[in-house]
Amino acid sequence: MVSGWEWDETLFSGAAPYYERGRLPYAPGLAKALAGALRLDGRGRLVDVGCGPGTLTLRLAHLFREVVGVDPDRGMIAEAGRRAAGAGLTGKVRWVRARAEELPAGLGSFTVATFGHSFHWMDQERVARTVRAMLRPGGSLVHVADLKDEVRTHAGLPYPGVPHQKIEELVQRYLGPVRRAGQGVLPDGTPGGERDVLARSGFSAPERHVVPGGQPLDRTDDDLVAWVFSHSSAAPHLFGPRREDFEAELRRLLREISPPGLFSERLPSTEVFVWRREDTFAEPERV
């Protein structure tokens, strides 16, 4: 858990309707890569912890017999349910509104537990140990994220690049220089250190897989507005009565850079760490 910061229900308040449109998708070979790495045959159970609107959950649903998505945000769970219904997966996927710290929540045992851009928001030690206990022998915890420090060239793309720096500067003019998160702030960002936490919690050394991205992707100004509002640091509620002013100024900025409202970028690669449950792990004695 982040020192000096406490989770509250407004962390992603209002962001759910923007998430699927705004966020870049995972690299297209992700499901195939996981199926091969974990030898998935459609018969196991998956729990996706911090599932948001089901982005990763629904992407992997065909690889399992049963899937459970867990998220504390009411809007995210509602959006996930709508997307599952649209994909014809209502009978296969179950959505549970709960914090990761409230697990196991009577959900049973699982073959795989996934965390897609979510583990950093949690009490990592507590959640890692709980999830390990929820995994069947030989089960795996899978951490999925965009590949860090990847250089994605803009060469050869038809439209201007996304003006990330200018967008960040505009957000800071409205919300201040310190990153907002729910009712609190994160002056030092969210914690890393997942490797040490998971090693202490009874998982073997991770297997790393990189699913290549780089595919060209065109984005509209509507997509980029959704991208901004999909982040906890710029969730719609944070702007209060100035939300419409911010959005109008953001749209003016985007149109100044690209009058047609079109931008290009390349899809990031996806980095996957597979942590297998160490079945010989001995729990440390509590004193």
TrEMBL record:
EC number: 2.1.-.-
Methyltransferase recorded as keyword: yes
GO function terms (MF aspect): methyltransferase activity
Gene Ontology terms describing biological process: methylation
Species of the source: Streptomyces evansiae
Catalytic EC class: transferase
Alphabetized SUPFAM superfamilies for the sequence: S-adenosyl-L-methionine-dependent methyltransferases
Chain ranges of the Methyltransferase domain: 47-139
Superkingdom of origin organism: Bacteria
Protein's recorded name: Class I SAM-dependent methyltransferase
One Pfam family here: Methyltransf_25
Keywords assigned by UniProt, alphabetized: Methyltransferase, Transferase
InterPro entries to which the protein is assigned, alphabetical: Diverse_substrate_MTase, Methyltransf_25, SAM-dependent_MTases_sf
